[in-house]
Amino acid sequence: MSREAPGRGEPPSTPSSTVAAPASRLRRPTPPLRFRRPTEADHAPIVHLVDDWWGGRPVRRLLPRFWFRHFASTSWIAEVAAADDADDADDAGQVGGRAGTVAGFLVGFVSPDHPDEAFVHLAATNPNLRRRGIGRALYERFCDDVRARGVQRVTTTVWPGDRVAVDFHRATGFRAIDRPGSRAMYGIPAFPDYDADGEDRVVFVRTLDPTD
Ligand SMILES: CC(C)(COP(=O)(O)OP(=O)(O)OC[C@H]1O[C@@H](n2cnc3c(N)ncnc32)[C@H](O)[C@@H]1OP(=O)(O)O)[C@@H](O)C(=O)NCCC(=O)NCCS
Predict the structure, then answer these.
(1) Can you tell me the distance from the alpha carbon of 97 to that of 133, in angstroms, rounded to the nearest whole number?
(2) Averaged pLDDT, 57-85
(3) Nearest CA residue ID for atom 3, ligand 1
(4) Is there an atom of ligand 1 within 6 Å of 134 CB?
(5) Which residue is closest in CA terms to ligand 1's atom 33?
């Protein structure tokens, strides 16, 4: 994950699901969502969005089409559910956009070389739908996917200055790895030049409980 792009579960047996927002999230209106696997057809519309979703940073180069072809079974898209599925179709349209609007996505994989580890490459929520639990829901689905494959820990890397991404990962069960080579940056252990010169990173890890 570059400095320009910081921060960079439905059970796997079902291809998609429509869910209402958890009650605890209703402090902000949230349309019913459908979670499904990405396909290659999703690449063009999503890659068109990501620079904007990362606040203008050039993230699209980090999301080539192969993610949607070769890693779909461990990736997710959340979208606004069809009107038929919404409790109130008018509200759904006003709050989250039209049915099919992308509410968020996550692309990740199980490490071929470290099969007990999975990695989240990119995840984001539509800026109009943040702080409603969508990012957390995407991560939970990913964790369910990879736990079912025997994965024991999920990792990801984040630029230490990206406060939102740091807070989000701390809130979703990740801890920053602190070991020789790391030092405090922006108040969190991070590895200088982790991805390239000047590309410092927090390495976040979340341990999965196989009984969950
Ligand atoms: C990081 C991101 C994915 C979070 O998505 P989200 O759907 O808004 O997150 P959630 O609503 O599931 O938040 C879960 C928890 O994370 C924390 N959190 C999320 N956004 C936060 C923010 N802006 N400030 C502080 N804490 C935040 C909170 O503890 C939150 O729980 P709460 O709302 O009950 O307090 C979203 O802000 C985003 O897309 N950012 C740009 C892309 C990015 O940085 N991705 C990072 C991974 S590559």
Answers:
(1) 17
(2) 93
(3) 124
(4) yes
(5) 131
Residue 108 near ligand 1, beta carbon < 6 Å: no
Asked if 46 contacts 67 with a C-beta cutoff of 8 angstroms, the reply is: no
CB proximity list for 23: less than 8 A, separation 6 or greater: none
Question: Which one is predicted more confidently, 19 or 101?
Answer: 101
Residue whose Cα lies nearest atom 1 of ligand 1: it is 165
Ligand 1 centroid, distance to 100 Cα (angstroms):
22
Domains, the chain: 16-152 (3.40.630.30)
Q: Which residues contact 88 (CB under 8 A, 6 or more apart)?
A: none
| Lowest-pLDDT range of 16-20, 94-98, 126-130 | 16-20
- Ramachandran bin of 147, using left for φ above 0, alpha for ψ from -120 to 50, beta for the remaining angles: alpha
Most informative mutation of 168, 170, 174, 195 for ligand 1 (most atoms within 8 A of CB)? 168
Half-sphere exposure of 25 (CA within 13 A, CB side): 17
Which tokens sit at 204?
A: 């976040």
